[in-house]
Specification:
Blueprint lengths: L8 E6 L5 H10 L4 E7 L3 H10 L12 H4 L2 E4 L6 H10 L3 E4 L2 H4 L4 H9 L2 E2 L9 H8 L3 E10 L1 H4 L3 H5 L11 E7 H7 L5 H9 L6 E7 L6 E9 L3 E8 L9 H15 L7
Parallel strand pairs: 1-2, 1-3, 3-4, 4-5, 6-8
Antiparallel strand pairs: 6-9, 7-8, 9-10
Helix pairs in contact: 1-12, 4-6, 10-11
């Protein structure tokens, strides 16, 4: 997909939080073949101020207007705003890059819509590892996929699953398993915490066969994810410990994963499937 402006692919950012601002800075610093076209944010004055403070020149526009100005729309918004960001991008045949991958599980009709419009939905690896290996194994037969997430209790605060069950974590002194179920259930109960589980499920055997455990662990300082795969081609177990960003629910590597994914769209050489 090529832009018509002669300057490479135009990138629109839906959200300017812990992820969006890092991506904006990288684009503004210069990535060959990519240009920051526009930004949308819930707090427009705040977004304008953040861009000015960072010395980034980009217009702040309404969410629906991003697709008019961009070839790629990177979604880094609360899950409740997912569809409002996705629909205009897909209707316009753009590349839509969601970070709220968990929300995609309840909006799979958008994939069929993308087929009709020529749009592409590309989910970055985000805060997980090994998705290339999972996708490769899925070309054969995968028997089981299990993910164990351990997070500092504060990073899980406010999750709907915990609120609905009156589970308090503020005085936790030992690890507590707060969830054990499917990736689909986990994505609904912890929409700001386990987009990685949704990505894993979509890369492998689906959200209803992918098992997920979530632990609130006061002994950890990093968001930790372990995935275990049993397949006819390989058995593997991998663990990643992510350094939190300014938003404790999001690891620093998430924004860098978006940048790497964007580079991969325009680079003459790319490593990995």
């Amino acid at each position: 997909m090529a832009s018509t402006n002669g300057k490479g692919l135009r990138v629109g950012l839906a959200g300017l939080g812990a992820v969006g601002l890092v991506v904006a800075r990288r684009l503004a610093a210069g990535i060959p073949g990519l240009a920051l076209a526009a930004v949308s944010a819930r707090d427009r004055p705040g977004a304008v101020a953040r861009l000015e403070s960072a010395g980034i020149k980009a217009p702040v526009v309404a969410l629906g207007a991003l697709a008019e100005r961009s070839d790629i729309i990177v979604e880094a918004l609360p899950a409740a705003m997912f569809r409002a960001a996705a629909e205009p991008a897909i209707a316009a045949g753009r590349i839509f890059m969601p970070l709220s991958v968990g929300a995609l599980l309840d909006n799979l009709d958008l994939i069929e819509r993308a087929k009709a419009t020529g749009a592409r939905i590309i989910a970055p690896t985000g805060a997980l590892l090994g998705l290339d290996a999972v996708r490769a194994a899925a070309e054969g037969e995968i028997a089981t996929v299990r993910m164990i997430t351990r997070k500092p209790p504060a990073s899980l605060a406010g999750a709907p699953y915990l609120v609905e069950r009156n589970i308090a974590l503020d005085r936790l002194v030992a690890p507590l398993k707060v969830f054990d179920g499917t990736a689909r259930e986990g994505a609904r109960g912890f929409p700001a915490n386990v987009n990685v589980a949704a990505a894993l499920a979509l890369a492998g055997i689906g959200p209803d066969r992918t098992r997920l455990e979530i632990w609130a662990d006061p002994s950890v300082e990093r968001n930790t994810h372990t995935i275990e795969i049993e397949a006819d081609s390989a058995r593997f177990r991998m663990t990643i410990e992510n350094v939190p960003s300014e938003n404790p629910r999001t690891g620093r590597i998430t924004a860098l994963s978006v940048v790497a994914c964007l580079r991969g769209l325009v680079a003459p050489f790319r490593v990995g499937s």
